[in-house]
Automatic annotation (TrEMBL), chain A:
CDD domains: TM_PBP1_LivH_like. The chain crosses the membrane at residues 12-32, 37-54, 60-83, 95-115, 135-159, 188-210, 222-250. It holds the Pfam family BPD_transp_2. GO terms for molecular function: transmembrane transporter activity. This is Branched-chain amino acid ABC transporter permease.
Automatic annotation (TrEMBL), chain B:
InterPro entries: AAA+_ATPase, ABC_AA/LPS_Transport, ABC_transporter-like_ATP-bd, ABC_transporter-like_CS, BCA_ABC_TP_C, P-loop_NTPase. Gene3D superfamilies: P-loop containing nucleotide triphosphate hydrolases. This is ABC transporter ATP-binding protein. It comes from Noviherbaspirillum galbum. GO terms for molecular function: ATP binding; ATP hydrolysis activity. SUPFAM superfamilies: P-loop containing nucleoside triphosphate hydrolases. Keywords: ATP-binding, Cell membrane, Membrane, Nucleotide-binding, Transport. One of its GO terms (cellular component) is plasma membrane. Pfam families: ABC_tran, BCA_ABC_TP_C. Residues 6-248 form the ABC transporter domain. The keyword Transport applies.
From TrEMBL, chain C:
This is ABC transporter ATP-binding protein. Residues 3-230 form the ABC transporter domain. SMART domains: AAA (SM00382). InterPro entries: AAA+_ATPase, ABC_transporter-like_ATP-bd, ABC_transporter-like_CS, BCAA_Transport_ATP-bd_LivF, P-loop_NTPase. Keywords: Amino-acid transport, ATP-binding, Cell membrane, Membrane, Nucleotide-binding, Transport. GO terms for biological process: L-amino acid transport. It comes from the Bacteria. Belongs to the ABC transporter superfamily. GO terms for molecular function: ATP binding; ATP hydrolysis activity; branched-chain amino acid transmembrane transporter activity. The keyword Nucleotide-binding applies.
TrEMBL record, chain D:
Keywords: Cell membrane, Membrane, Transmembrane, Transmembrane helix. It holds the Pfam family BPD_transp_2. This is Branched-chain amino acid ABC transporter permease. InterPro entries: ABC_transp_permease, LivM-like. It is a multi-pass membrane protein. GO terms for cellular component: plasma membrane.
Amino acid sequence: MSIYLLQIVNGIGIGMLYFLMAVGLSIVFGLLGFVNFAHGAFFLIGAYVCFQAVDMGLNFWWTLLLAPLLVGAFAWVAEKALLRHIYQLPHEFHIIFTVGVALVLQEAVILQWGALGQNVAPPSELQGVFILGDFVYPTYRLFVIGFTAAMALLLWWLLDGTRLGAIVRAGSESTEMVSLLGLNINRVFSLVFALGALTAGLAGVLAAPIRGVEPFMGVEALGIAFVAVVVGGMGSFWGALAGGLLVGIVQSLMSTIWPEGARLMIYVAMAAVMLLRPNGLFGRT
Amino acid sequence: MTAPILSARNIVKRYGKFTAVNGVSIDIMPGTVHSVIGPNGAGKTTLFHSLTGTVPITEGNILLDGEEVGHLPDYRRVLKGIARSFQVTSLFLNLSVRENLRLAAQGRHPGQAFRLWRDAESLTAACDTAEALLERLNLAAVASRPAGELSHGQQRRLEVGMAMAGRPKVIFLDEPTSGMGIDDIGEMKRLIHGLRNECAVVLIEHNMDIVMDISDRITVMQLGQVLVEARPDEIRNDERVRRAYLGGMITGGAA
Amino acid sequence: MILEVREVHAYYGKSHILQGVSLEVGPGELVTLLGRNGAGKTTTLKTIVGVVAPRGGSIRFMGKDIAGLPAYRIAAGGICLVPEHRGIFRLLSVEENLTMAARKDSPWQLDDVYRIFPRLKERRKNGGSQLSGGEQQMLAIGRALMTHPKVLMLDEPVEGLAPVIVEEIVAQLTQIKKAGMPIILVEQNLAVCTQLGDRHYIIEQGRIVHCAGNAEFLADDSIKDRYLGVNVSTPTPQADHK
Amino acid sequence: MKILKTYRYLLLALAVVLLLPATLSSASLATEVLIFALAALGCNLLLGYTGLMSFGQGIFLGLGSYAAGLALLHLKAPLLAALLLAMLAGALAALVVGWFSIRQRGVYFVMLTLAFAQMFYFLAYTLKNITGGDNGLLNIPRPQLSLLGATLMPTATPWQYYGVVAVLFLIAFALLQRIADSVFGRTLLAIRDNEARAAAIGYNIKSFKLIAFVISGAVTGLAGALHAMLTGIAPLSNIEYHASESILIMTVLGGTGNLFASVLGAAFYVLVGDWLSTLWPRWLMLLGLLLIAVSLYMQKGLWGLGMRLAGIVRPGHGDQPPAALKEGGKQ
Amino acid sequence: DAIQFGCAVPMSGAFAANGKFADMGMKLAIDKYGKVLGKSASYTVIDTEGKPATAIRKVQEAQQKGTRFFLGGFLSSEALAIGKEVDKAGGVCITTAGADELTGSECNRSTFRWSVPTYGAIEQTVRPLIEKLPKAKRWYTITPQYVFGEGLLSAAKAVFQEKGIEHVGNSYHSLAEKEFSGYLTNAIAAKPDVLLLLNFSTQSSDTLRQAVSFGMKKNMTIVMAWASGLEQFESLGADLCEDVYFGAQYWHAIDAPFNKEFVKLANTAFKEDPNYSLAGSFICTKIVLDAIAKANSTDPKAVIAAMEGMKYEGLTGTEEIRKGDHQVIKNYYLLKGKGKSKMRNKTDFADIISSGKSFLPLEKTQCKMS
Ligand SMILES: Nc1ncnc2c1ncn2[C@@H]1O[C@H](COP(=O)(O)OP(=O)(O)OP(=O)(O)O)[C@@H](O)[C@H]1O
Ligand SMILES: Nc1ncnc2c1ncn2[C@@H]1O[C@H](COP(=O)(O)OP(=O)(O)OP(=O)(O)O)[C@@H](O)[C@H]1O
Ligand SMILES: [Mg+2]
Ligand SMILES: [Mg+2]
C-alpha cells in the first residue's frame, strides 16, 4: 500500500476524534448561538476522569460509560447554576465567561493531579496492532474509528430526526418565542449543553490511551475543534464530520508531504475553504 | 410626456430555484405616487429589494434618470437618489431617534463620514435635516430616546423618516402604515401624499384607503409578475384584481 | 371567567407602563383590546403570558393565580400569544415550525392547518426565512392552534395582510371562535374588530378607559373619536389624477 | 468647563500616565501597562465601536514587534522610523485579515480571526530565518527618540523609556478619541447597531469596517513595536493565540462603552496578573474566576463599575435605565 | 541586607511542573548553603509563564528592585532572553535550558549553563548505542523544527556519517504538535532498526507513547536522546519505558559523592527522589553561592570571575565551568528503561548504561564573548 493511502487511513482515525470533539462544540455553538471556549475543558476532564478511574483499577469499558456521563452531569449543573445567566449577553461575554471556566478547570486539574502528564494504558483487549501487509495500525485506534462512527449515527438521529433537534434550533433564534409556545427552553438548553459536554468528555476518554493525559490537552483539542467547525460550517452535524475528517487527513498527509508545515497547512486548508465557501462546507448561507 | 425618473426592465430575481420576481417592468414618473399592491407573497418586497439593491438582481436593467444602476450595491444607489423603508422595521435601536435621522441624512454624503477629524455636529446640513424631520414626523418629544424604546407605531414613523432623510429622487416605502395607530394613518397618508412634491414615491400598501386615495398609478402584482398597471379607479373596477386581491375590502381601518 | 386580570401593573425598567389594567374573558368570548400606538396593548398581552413580569394585581386563569409564573408554564397551561412580530423560526422549515410545539390532543392538527392555509402546505419544506409577511402570519396562527390553546391572544394578526387574506383569516377566526375558543384580539383594524368582537376594551396610557359590548360600541362614534382618534369627518386628500 | 468636558478622557489618560510612576516601583511594569493599553484601545475600536470581536489582535502585535525589530536590527533604523514601519506592518496585515474576515459576521467572524491568528503564528514559526522562530528575534536595540538627528528624548533608563512610551501613548489616545468622536466614529456605532439599515441609507459597510480594522492594526502594531523595544526581543509569543486572547480580555474587562475603559482594562489585567502570579502558582484560576465574575456581574466592565460607584449617569449612551420614559413616550 | 536570587521559571503554562521543581531545588540550596559572607541569601520566584517577553519584563522588574542573581528559565527561548537581559544590567544568570546558543553564538559574560549541549547529548547516546547494537544500521529520526532540534539532528547526522549508519529518514514537526501518528507512519514505512527521538518533554513522551502503540518497540529500538529525567519516567510509567534508551542530564542514582549527599537532602526535605529540574536548580544555585563565597564579594563582576574556570564536586562528579563559553563540563548519561518487575523501588525506572563528557572545542562553539 502506498504511504499516502496509509496516511489517509490514519487521518481518518485522527479525524474521527476531531469530529467527536467538534460536534459538541458545533451543537452548542451553532444551535444555542453560544461560543463555548470551555469545551476543551470538558475534553480534559473526561480524560482525567478516565485516568483516575483506570488508575484506581476500574475497567476501561466502565470508564467509557461513566466518565462522559459524569462530565455531562457536571456540565448540566454548571449550565443551570451559571451559564444560563449569560445566554442573553453578547458574544464577547460568552467567550470571556467560558475562557474563565476553562482556566478554572485547567488549574483545578493541575491542583488535583499535578502539571505533569500521565499515561493511560489502553484496555488489554485492544493493546495489539492490526497488520495488513505494510499497514500497521494500533487495534485501539481501529476501535476508536468504529466507536465514533456509531456515535455519529446516534447523534445525527438525535439532532435531525427528533423534535428535540427542531426545538433547539428554534431556541437559538428566540427563546422568548419558544417559551410562548409552552416549551421549557431552559431545560432544552441544559440538555444540549450537557450533551455537548458529554461528547467532549467521551472524546477525552477515547483520546486518553492515545495521548495520555496532561492539563493542557484541552486547549489544544479546542483549537483543532474550532478549525473543524469553521471548515465544516457552524451548527452543522455533517460539517463537523467533514471538517474533522478533512483536518485529520490534511494533517496526516502533510506529515509525509511537508512535515514541518503540517500545522500551517491545516490553517491554509481552512483559509481556502473559507474563500470558496465562506460559511463552511455545510454552512447555511 | 416627461421621461420616467426610474425605469426597470424585465427584473428577475431568483432565490435558488424559486423565482420571486419574474420579468417585472415598471416606470416611475417624477412627482407621482406609484403603488404596488398584490397578495401576500406576490413579490412586492422582493421587487423593492431588487430596485433598491438590497439584494442583487438576477436579470434585468434599472435606469435611474437615464443611468444604469442595476449592478450597483445598495449604498451606491443611495448616492444616485434612491431611498427605502423596510417592511420589518430596521432602525439603529441603541442610538437616539435624532442620531438615527442624522445618520440617514448624512448617508447622502457618505464621503463626509470618512472624515476622521470632523465632529458630526459640525456638519450642520445633516443635523438640520434631522431636526426638520423630527418635527415633521412628530417625534420631537422622543428625539433623545434610543429608537429601541419607542412603541411600534413610533418606530414605523421613524422608519419612513429614515428614507426621507436621504432626500432621494425616488423613495420606496414598504407598508409604511403597518402597525400604525388609527389616528396616525391619516397623518401618514398626508405625509406620503406631500412627498410627491419632493420625489417620486413608490409605495407598497395593503390599506386600500390610502392606496386608492393618493396613488397616481397602481401596479398589481401576482405570483412575481405584473397583473395590471393602471389608475386607481380602473384598478378598483378591474375584475381580475378583485378576484386576486381586493375581495370584499374589509381592510381599510377607520375612515 | 376563563381569564381575569385585576389591577395589573407593569414596568419597563423604571417606566410604569401598565397602571392598573383590568379585563376579563369569558368562555367562548372574543374580546378586543383597542388603543393608540404605545397605549400598552402589547404590554398587556405580554404581562398576561408572563414575558413581562406583572407587579401588583392578580391574573387568574381558570381559577388559578398565574401571576409571576414563567412564560413557558403559562403558555403550557393554555394561554397562547401570537406576537406582533410573529416569531417565525427562520432556521426551521414551515412544517418544523408547525410541529415543534404541537400537542397530540389539540383539535387542530397539521392537516387542519394545511386545510385552512393551503399556501403553507405548498411551502412546507421552505425555511421560515423565505416566507412573505402574510405567509408568516398564517404560519404563526397555525402554529399557535397546534399547541392546543385554551385562550388565544392575537397581537395585530392581520397587520400587513392583503384584503383577501384578511377576509380568510377573519373567517377562520370566526370558525375558531365558534369552536368555543376564548380570544383576546389586539387590532388596529376597526372593521375586523367589530366584525368579530363580543366586547371591546379601550386602553389608554396603561389604563382601561372604556369597555362596551359590540352593539353599543358600533353605535357610539364619539367613543371611537375620543379614544382612538378616528375622526370620521376628517377629509382625506384626494389624489389628483391626470 | 467645556474644555474639561471635551478632553475629559484625555485628562483621565494623562492622570493614569502620571499615576503609574507614582504608585509602581518598576518602570517596566508601568511601561507594559501603557503598551497593552494601546493594544486594548485598538481592540476596543473594533469591538466597542464597530461590533467586531477580533480574536486576531495578536497578529498585529506580533508583526509590529517583528517589523520594528527587523528595522532596528538590520537597517539600524531610528526609533520613529521603526515605529512607523511597525504601524505600517500592522495596518497592512489588518487590511488583509480584515478583507477576508469582514465578509463574515458574528461568531464566524470571531472564528475567522482566530484562525488567522493561528495561521500567522505558524507562519512566523515556519519562517524562522526572518523571525528567529521559537527563540524570537534577539538583541533588538533601543535607540533614542530623535528627529532629523536631534535627540528629543533619551531612552536609556527604564523610566526614560517610560516617558517616551507615555508621550506616544497620549498622542495615540488623543487621536483615537478624536476618531471615535468624529463623524466616522458615529457611523461605526451605527453600523455596529444595524448593518442592513446602514447600507440602505448609503454607507459602504465594508469600507468602514476595513478602515476601522486598519486603524486598529496600526495602533496594535505600534504597541508591538514598543513592546519589542521594552524587552529587546520580538518573541513568538507576541503573535500567539494567547496574546490575542489577553488583548481581548483586557478590552472586555475594561468595558466597551468608551475608549478610556480599555486603559483601565489593560492596567487592571497587567497589574493584577502580575500581583496574582506572585501570590500563588495557580493564579490563573483566580484570573478565571475573575473573568467569570466580570461576565456575570460587570458587563459594562471596570468603567461601568466605576460609573456605577460614582453614581454618574451619562446621557445618551443607553447604559442608564430609560427614566423619564413616560413623559416622553406619549404624544 | 540579603543576597537576592531570582528563580525565573514557568510556574504556570505548559511547563508549570518544571517550575515547581525548580522552586523546590532553589529553596533546598538556599536553606542549606544560604549563609555566605555573613549575609543570608533569599529568593523570589518569578513566573515566566513560559513566555520570553513576560520573563524579560519580570526580570527587569526584579533587577530594578536590586536582584542580581538569576536562575534563568527552563525553555530555550526564555533562557536566552533572560540571559541577555541579565547581561544588560550586569548580573549573573545560570540555566539548565537546552539551547546551544546560550554558550554558543549568543553567549555573553553573564550567562552560564549547566546542561550539556546537544552535541554532547548525541555523542553520549548515539555513539555508544551504535557500538552496542552493531546490527542496527538503519536509523530514523523525529525532530522538532527549531534550533534545539536542529542541533541534535546535525550532531546525530555527523555521527551517522562517521559510523557509516544509514539515515533512512527524518520527520520534522512543529513545537505545537501533539499527534505523531502521521510521522510514525512515515517511520514505519522506512523500516528502520532504530527510531531516534530528538524532541523533548511532553512531545517526546507523546511520540514514545504513540510509537509503542504502533507496535514499534517490537521490531526496532527506540532511543530518546534528550529525556527530561525522572519526571518523564513517572509520567510515562515503567511499561512504556521498558527497553527504551534515554539520554539524560541527571539521574538520581548517579554514583557521585555529592549526589548521594544531595539525594539524602532531598529525601529528607521532600520525601521523594530528586528529578532533573530540582537537581538542576539546586546545583545552579549552589554554584553561584559557592562563587560568591570564593569571590568574597556580591559584586556580579567578581562573582563571574570566580565562576570562570571554577572546579567543584557536583552532582555528576567533578564538574568544571569552562571560562571561554561559560559551559559547565559535566557528564551526560545513557539510561535504559527496565520493566516493572525489575524495579527495586518506585523511582528505579532505569539503569545507567554509560556516561561521559563530550563537548565541542571552544573554537567550534561560535561563542565570542565580548
Ligand atoms: N430570501 C428568500 N429566499 C427564498 N424565497 C424568498 C426569500 N425572500 C422571499 N422569498 C419568497 O418570495 C416570495 C415573495 O416574497 P415577498 O416578501 O416579496 O412578498 P410580498 O409581496 O412583499 O408579500 P407581503 O405582502 O406578504 O409582504 C414569497 O413567496 C417568499 O416566500
Ligand atoms: N422594550 C421596551 N423598553 C422600554 N419601553 C418600551 C418597550 N417596549 C415598549 N415600551 C414602551 O411602552 C409603551 C407601551 O408599548 P406597547 O408596545 O405596549 O404599545 P402598543 O399599545 O402595543 O402600541 P402599538 O400599537 O404601537 O403596537 C410605549 O410607550 C413604548 O414606548
Ligand atoms: Mg412584503
Ligand atoms: Mg403593540
